[in-house]
Specification:
The complex is a heterodimer of chains A (296) and B (444). Chain A is an alpha/beta fold and 296 residues long. Chain A is 48% helix and 14% strand. Chain A has two domains: 73 residues, Four Helix Bundle (Hemerythrin (Met), subunit A) (Up-down Bundle), CATH 1.20.120.140; 199 residues, Rossmann fold (3-Layer(aba) Sandwich). Chain B has three domains: 84 residues, Four Helix Bundle (Hemerythrin (Met), subunit A) (Up-down Bundle), CATH 1.20.120.140; 183 residues, P-loop containing nucleotide triphosphate hydrolases (Rossmann fold, 3-Layer(aba) Sandwich), CATH 3.40.50; 133 residues, Orthogonal Bundle (434 Repressor (Amino-terminal Domain)). In chain B, strands 3-2-4-1-5-6-7-8 form an eight-stranded mixed sheet, sandwiched between helices. In chain B, helix 4 packs across helix 11, helix 9 packs across helix 10 and helix 17 packs across helix 19. Classes of the chains: A alpha/beta (296), B alpha/beta (444).
Amino acid sequence: MGLRARPSGLGTRLRSILGADSPATEETWDEVEQVLIAADVGASTTLELVDAARARFRASGGRNGEDARRALATEIRDRLVRVESGRFELGDAPSVILFVGVNGSGKTTSIAKLAARLTAEGRTVALAAADTFRAAAVEQLRIWGEQLGVPVIAQRAGADPGAVAFDAVVAAESRNLDAVLVDTAGRLHNKQQLMDELAKIRRVIQRRLPDQPRHVLLVLDATTGQNGLMQAEAFSDEAGVTGIILTKLDGTAKGGVALGVADRLGVPILFAGVGEEIDALAPFDPEAFVEWLFAE
Amino acid sequence: MFESLSTRLQGITERLRGKARIAEADLDVALREIRLALLEADVNFKVVKDFVARVRERAVGTDLLTGLNPGQQIVKIVHGELVAVLGGERHHLDLAAKPSVFMMVGLQGSGKTTTAAKLAVRLSKEGKKPLLVAADVYRPAAVDQLVQLGDQIGVEVHTRPVGTPALEVARSGLEVARQRGIDVMILDTAGRLHVDEAMMDELVRIVGSVTPAETLLVVDAMTGQEAVHVAEAFHAKLPVTGLILTKMDGDARGGAALSIRAATGLPVAFLGTGERTDGLEPFHPDRLAQRILGMGDILSFVERVQDNVDQAEAEKAAQRMMENRFTLEDFRSQLNQIKKMGPIGQLVGMIPGAGQMAGAAQEAVDSGQMKRVEAIIDSMTPDERRRPDIIKASRRRRIALGSGTSTAEVNRLLKQFVEMQRMMKMISGGKMPPGGGLGALLGR
């Protein structure tokens, strides 16, 4: 998935703990726990995963470190695959994709990247600037639109985001577009008023197209810690999250909190943001992610 | 989603009941909970390890105080240790030079641009003349964003045409600042990954050119285990002087602050709250410590108990309860102690998980029920308070008249007091009652 391995020291450590020859001991599992916690998987999800991996290890008659590693990797991968991570289907035209998330998670950049990806596949798309709150957010999306050669539906700053979303849906219908990507203002999930606004944007879209939005993508920063779980739960409740985009995976952050999110909410991780370049958005690959979690 | 630490530590109370001090063996359960709580708060796992070891050292052999259960007492030790790590003296911004240069650095999306504007507002209010310099030349419309914020807050923003390198923007900004008699130039820079060497080198060159008095690392309060690596990398390359923790109006515990402080020794200068340009607060170590522990305001509760409860008095009352000699007089003095602690709803509200009870308790006070109970007790003779069983029909009428209540209310109080005594007997006999107590006495 284009994840570049960077030295974090953990991989080396994990390899030494899970060395192929040495038999797996209690200490091995304790160390594994630490590796997962260091990857932001979180204490409770870690305990769950390790218990499950241990059971799998025993059931399969595992003995050495390599068996333990395989049991853990399989456990994690299975959970990701179970929720259909990495399998994104645009759906019938016009497909409305709503981007939600906390401030600074990378919504606008992710929209540009997904638009570039869809355009490259021959799809026709428009962007909707429904972040009418943050200073220059509309301009930021406009610049992306110009660079990508895709239309941007916008009103003035401070306009009603629901109205912008509605305009965008109407435009997508009249222009026969395949998809419209709706940017929304970053908001902290514990601010009920702002979360209500999101629910309203959703309703406005539904009034015009009852089956939409087809996708509600939660943009989650890989550097986020355990608060990611609360974010995901709140956005899911208010906006009906259907998938996750895990951003900023080009640093040393492992984004382990997404594991718990996918598992608990039963939503897939669909894309991974892996760099600043416009093409640095790849379909999420559970296999590669597991490698990445344990990578050097 | 997460239980508060104090709730989790209630379990160990049983083990420690009747003991005078905390023994090492009793601590294991508690320390495990503390470790989990800190990890859930995103404190780096290595930092957690050291921290828990220190708490163990301090807790072993600590005398148990009355008025606090052992769980609360361990929380107090943890809190004290947290404050010690986070805290120390306030960070004072270095404004000696004119112009002083403040440089904002950090990862993408941490909140540098918004924080730059907030800092400008704060410095303006202090009578300084700030200049904002838009050196984020990479993110589309980042310059527009700063210009718009500058307009909103009435602070000048220095920009250069698209395509100008960040170093040149910073350098020309400093020239402008010198010419205009600016007190402090606030330099916004592009978000960058700490492992991106080319981008980190750009910052090093800017530092070489404008020599910032303050290099402020802006960190999202929601950051997880990575916070340490990020801070260490920025700190190693740049003369970072302080930390600004943003998005504190969210519900993240902010353990990142503890990790960074422990790993780099950098002080927390400010906390960013909200999207309004006035949302920049000075840092209080004790409040952040409470937040990291996720325990509401239990510490304020603990402190109020300590400040207001007369230790000797409390012990006497406890003794009487145990010996089943608790009288209406004792009850009256307990009510007084509670009143001294302030609004009861607020007080109960500080106890994690007692949110609903807080309303009920406050209502009891507001509706005058507590006052009526006090009036009834005050209308009794000392003898009657000590031996309520002597209060027969004519005494009840007199007390009702004297307190401005009704005999029915006097009857209810007496009945409930008898019930309370019965429960105390059960407690002292080792059995827990199914609720009741003060609440029942107040007619709840």
